[in-house]
Write a structure and sequence with these properties.
Largest sheet of chain B: 8 strands, mixed
Structural class of chain B: alpha/beta
Helix content of chain A: over 70%
Strand order of the largest sheet of chain A: 1-4
Radius of gyration of chain A: 21 Å
Oligomer: heterodimer
CATH class of the largest domain in chain B: Alpha Beta
Number of helices of chain B: 17
Number of domains of chain B: 2
Distance between the termini of chain A: 14 Å
Strand content of chain A: under 5%
CATH topology of the largest domain in chain B: Rossmann fold
Low-confidence stretches of chain B: 6-28
Number of helices of chain A: 14
Largest sheet of chain A: 2 strands, antiparallel
CATH architecture of the largest domain in chain B: 3-Layer(aba) Sandwich
Mean pLDDT of chain B: 88
Shape of chain A: globular
Strand content of chain B: 5-15%
Low-confidence stretches of chain A: none
């Protein structure tokens, strides 16, 4: 009914193996992307851009990076915030120390620096796994927190340790209005999502998944764990680094290491767990859940209270917000341990079969 | 154009909820809106709440006094929990409401740094009375920041002056050991540059001991202090970090008399739980201390709390942080009055006009007395270039029950401060490609 697939025949491997083999899905996604590019810039206000949409886009990108490592390669990491910080500070240093450095170049170089750092901190994954690896990656978090707080060179000797950048210039396009920033992040996110999707369905992605599902078996069939694990670390850190550079330079404008603290690492890990491990869409669902829901609750609760004639103090609102948010996390994990992305795909399967579920 | 209309029509439903949340409410022309970024939850709530109560109470008092030439103050609170990202979200949420925010006071150095980037674009002044970036004193570069009444550099400078006086002159500081225990954030790091400068000038050694957020784990810090035996400890803490530090000092036997806190480490919540253990502990008083006898405090009690309209508990009125909230609201209210004097009495002013008001603030002793702040603070006089106004401070000491002043007025030495401010702000201007304002620019 919703998916009328009659008459859709695939006559080549290419059409069978495309990202969205069902035309309805393809059109839906294309429509969403087109709407994001052409619709949203004309109709939302500055608040939605700056407080919700831009953070959502950037954290989606970061969640995508974590998902590659945790969801596809099965290596739990608690150092995501550190790799974001490396990306942000590297991009900052490239921008101010290399004269004539284009902003986009600095952001990408920030990503590559983070990738290199990621490889180094990924080496323990060859020996330890699971929770032990999570603890090992914590080292990255603490080390980089320390480095950016203490080593003055990284912050260009800023007296308070906070750094800031001027407006971003991308090939003559000055990214300074909220709409510009939104579009810039959106372009990067779309390109990177497409790259991620293609990576995970290609040879390298299959190697990651083989390692995730059973690394001994994967080794037996000829997959090199060294190569697979370290590429996962590199790609994941690259995504995180770019996201970190965007977070600092586009979203905050001025930042200190606290912007990439251990809380950020946890937040990203939760995004992936709630959104759906091993699903690209899960990164977006998770980011939406973690970024938008608390703000939404924070604003809707006084309105609900107002309906009942209650004056709700801001302290009460934030307490209730945390309670509801926590309860919802538990709820989603019980209802669907594989994340919101799985809920979505089950729903989609049901829609394909509807109204004949058997 | 057609496409745009089509798209808008097609998706009105999708943004229905957002429109409901952000639709500008109808506002009356004679209301002046101030966002209140408060924190009543989290690790810093014991210190954030009294400040917010004082801040809101003063606006209520202004309205009870009949507003500023009839213009009423309106405000809306938003909880930041001292987190920078939440604070920025709050700012974005509130800045456009009720016809636009007049000025914003973030009460967090981290949020101040973030808003400093946004203020010139939004044209909303950022008032940071007693905190924020020290170099933003230079109004030529930081056109929208107002660290009124004091910065961390002026505070640190006064503290050094005070211990020099105790020792009997600056030359006696040579060879002395000074330790700074600071909150590991932009806030705690602010005074380092000045202390290093002073250390070079007078030949004392400065050791730096950072404490990680939220500051409950200080065992290692105080162990180092016990080993080093510094002559003085400066404390740059906030929230629970302050009382923890004093308790640890007590545990390690470091004399509280030799501890000096900044003005954010010298309020009732910091010492009350420690009680007698905090006896002798000193802190800076940013102009004011605890002022239970001030005229304005009596007025608040009589006009608001007696009628059940006060904010927060009655006992808090007149305490240190409450007073700071009161003063922060007072300077901004007076800036509104100044701006109205130029742009039309009894009219609502914009953020840009508010800036003019803040830059031409001239609160002399007579004006302060009239407002009920006699003996609470000293005159403030700002200019387009000097956004701080005045850097007066005193030292007060906890006697186990209340704060008592233990020093005379000091003023930060501009001969030390000015070159540092110019250097730091020039660097900022270069990084951000800002052209500093000239005296000609200031006239309009």
């Amino acid at each position: 009914m919703f998916y009328r697939e009659n008459g859709q025949f695939k006559t080549s491997y290419k059409s069978d193996q495309q990202i969205f083999p069902i035309p309805q899905d393809r059109w839906l996604i294309l429509a969403i992307v087109a709407f994001a590019f052409l619709g949203i810039p004309f109709m939302v206000d500055e608040y939605l851009f700056r407080a919700i949409l831009i953070p959502f886009l950037i954290l989606s990108l970061a969640a995508l990076g974590v998902n590659i490592l945790v969801g596809y390669c099965g290596q739990i990491t608690l150092g995501a915030g550190a790799f974001m910080a490396v990306g942000a500070y590297a991009a900052y240093n490239f921008l101010i120390r290399v004269s004539g450095m284009p902003a986009l170049g600095a952001i990408l170089l920030g990503g590559f620096t983070a990738a290199a750092v990621g490889i180094v901190f990924g080496i323990p994954s060859l020996r330890v796994r699971g929770l032990y690896l999570a603890v090992a990656t914590l080292a990255a978090q603490f080390f980089w927190d320390w480095a950016f707080l203490r080593v003055k060179w990284f912050t260009n000797d800023a007296s308070s340790g906070s750094v800031s950048v001027a407006d971003i210039d991308v090939f003559g396009w000055i990214v300074n209005t909220p709409t510009d920033k939104y579009l810039f992040c959106l372009v990067i996110l779309v390109i990177f999502s497409l790259m991620a999707k293609n990576l995970v369905r290609g040879s390298i992605g299959r190697q990651w998944m083989a390692i995730r599902d059973m690394d001994v078996a994967a080794t037996v069939i000829g997959i090199r764990p060294l190569y697979a694990k370290l590429t996962a670390f590199a790609v994941s850190s690259f995504y995180l680094g770019v996201a970190g550079a965007l977070w600092g330079m586009i979203n905050l404008g001025s930042w200190e290491p606290a912007a990439f603290s251990i809380d950020r690492s946890f937040q990203l890990l939760f995004m992936v767990i709630i959104g759906g491990m091993g699903a690209i869409a899960g990164s977006f669902f998770g980011a939406a859940f973690i970024v938008i829901l608390p703000i939404f609750l924070n604003q809707i609760l006084p309105i609900i209270g107002g309906l009942f004639g209650l004056e709700v103090s801001i302290a009460l609102v934030s307490h209730v917000e945390i309670m509801i948010f926590g309860a919802l996390i538990v709820f989603f994990l019980i209802v669907e341990p594989h994340g919101i992305a799985r809920l979505w795909s089950t729903g989609r399967e049901k829609l394909r079969l509807w109204p004949f579920p058997h | 154009m057609k496409l745009r209309k089509l798209v808008v029509a097609a998706s009105v439903a999708a943004i229905g909820f957002s429109a409901a949340l952000t639709a500008p409410a109808a506002y009356a022309a004679e209301e002046q809106f101030f966002p209140v970024l408060a924190y009543r939850t989290g690790a810093y709530a014991p210190n954030g709440a009294p400040w917010a109560n004082g801040f809101v109470d003063y606006m209520k008092l202004t309205n009870a006094r009949g507003g500023v030439n009839g213009v009423k103050m309106i405000w809306e609170e938003c909880e930041t929990a001292y987190a920078t990202d939440r604070g920025v979200e709050c700012y974005e949420r509130l800045k456009g409401k009720h016809g636009g925010a007049t000025a914003v006071q973030p009460l967090s150095t981290g949020i101040t740094f973030a808003l400093t980037e946004k203020a010139p674009v939004d044209k909303i002044p950022v008032i940071t009375a007693g905190y924020g970036r020290s170099e933003s004193q230079n109004g030529a570069v930081f056109g929208w920041n107002f660290p009124l009444v004091g910065t961390y550099w002026s505070g640190a400078d006064v503290l050094v002056q005070h211990i020099a006086k105790k020792e009997g002159g600056f030359d006696k500081l040579k060879g002395k050991k000074l330790t700074l225990v600071y909150h590991d954030s932009p806030y705690g790091k602010e005074p380092i540059a000045l202390l290093q400068e002073r250390a070079k000038m007078h030949g004392f050694t400065l050791s730096l001991l950072p404490v990680a957020h939220p500051g409950v784990e200080q065992k290692a810090t105080w162990l180092q202090i016990r080993q080093n035996k510094p002559d003085y400890v400066f404390l740059w803490g906030w929230g629970v970090m302050n009382s923890t530090a004093i308790k640890e000092a007590q545990a390690t036997g470091y004399p509280r008399e030799k501890m000096y806190g900044v003005w954010w480490s010298g309020a009732e919540p910091d010492v009350k739980d420690v009680g007698d253990g905090a006896k002798g502990y000193n802190a800076l008083a940013m102009q004011h201390g605890a002022e239970p006898n001030a005229k304005v405090v009596k007025e608040v009690l009589e006009k608001l709390h007696a009628k059940g309209q006060g904010t927060g508990p009655k006992e808090e009125v007149g305490q240190v942080l409450y007073m700071r909230g009161l003063i922060s609201a007072m300077v901004q209210t007076e800036a509104v009055r100044v701006a109205q004097g130029r742009y039309g009495k009894g009219k609502r002013i914009t953020g840009e006009q508010m800036r003019w008001g803040l830059e031409n603030l001239n609160l002399d002793q007579k004006a302060l007395d009239a407002l009920g702040f006699a003996g609470v603070m000293r005159p403030v006089h700002t200019t387009c270039i000097d956004h701080m106004g005045s850097g007066f401070a005193r030292v007060h000491t906890w006697d186990g029950k209340k704060w008592n002043f233990s020093s005379d007025w000091y003023e930060a030495d501009q001969k030390v401060l000015r070159p540092m401010v110019m250097l730091a702000s020039a660097k900022y201007a270069e990084e951000k490609k800002i052209k500093p304002r000239t005296p000609e620019d200031c006239k309009n």
